[in-house]
Amino acid sequence: MSALLLRADADGICTLTLNRPEARNALSRPMMAALQAELDRIGDDRSVRVVVLTGAGPAFCAGHDLKEVRGLDTSDYLPLFEQCSRLMMSLVHLPQPVIAKVHGIATAAGCQLVASCDLAYAADTARFATPGVNIGLFCSTPMVALSRAVPRKAAMEMLLSGQPVLAVDAVRHGLINAALPVEELDAHVAAMAATIAGKSPLTLKIGKEAFYRQLEQPLAEAYAYASRVMAENMMARDAEEGIDAFLGKREPVWCGG
User: 3-class DSSP state for residue 235?
Assistant: First the structure.
């Protein structure tokens, strides 16, 4: 495990901590590679039910490492942003739900990380921004995740102004689920992660994949697709167990099949 990324596992919950506190956890190419490699491993790890993504030090993530970017050859620009885009899509395609636990700032590609996670909870002192426009570099790749997480005009205001958004407004826009006092953030995320980890892992995988696929479909196609998913889900052993447990007024015992 690279020192750029820390991993801790307990009770089906995997916590990944971005570990460049001195650089506000900026997404250098090695940092992105370390996170990508760990996500690839987690996807095949049946012991992991939920992933929590957070940052060490005073910030969640300040986006791309601009010092690194300025040192690249022009031929490296496209591979850099393709690497970042693959990372963000990996969060969406990961079978397990991913929760962002945010403190400090989440800016540019850091805000993109938050928008790409399935759930996000933040300290009420956290700030979110896509400030690329301030330095002549529009946040075009962060825009993809942001525009799928918040209403159009809220996204455009962030992208065009570059101004930070308070946590309370990030909740209102739907970028995060809740803003909490900093001393309550860890406990809240731990409780939510434990709740989700108690569900059938197969059901979570089926549901997460279906959620994102149907979003991109017209209404009739989405219903047709979701109907097929539910019919297939009904044939799973975990669905049979869950229904029987509910009818029998007992706790289900998931087998993951």
Answer: coil
